[in-house]
Amino acid sequence: QVQLVESGGGSVQAGGSLRLSCAASGYIDSGDCMGWFRQAPGKAREGVATFNSDGRTNYGDSVKGRFTISKDHAKNTLLLEMNSLKPEDTAMYYCAAGSKIGCYRLDGRYFGVWGQGTQVTVSS
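RE: above sequence
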């Protein structure tokens, strides 16, 4: 059974940095996609970044140039380096695994496995 476990969330002041990790167990990554999504209270889920099995990455417009997604293949861990954080980045961040279409479209509907989420709070 595939499981995704996020860690690394927390509280930080605007301009600060955080690094999120997503440990995947029981997951075969060839031909698949992993990504980060976020949801703030009262707002729709938003695609943050995706990492395709061929190494291609995709980012949401609001995080381009500030966030970097990568994968530690040896540890089967997905990472999200978040810099220059803004209050509007405050949300619950979820790691997910899905199809390549989900990577291209940054669309959570193509992701079938989700972690429990980790909270990121950015204060001004």
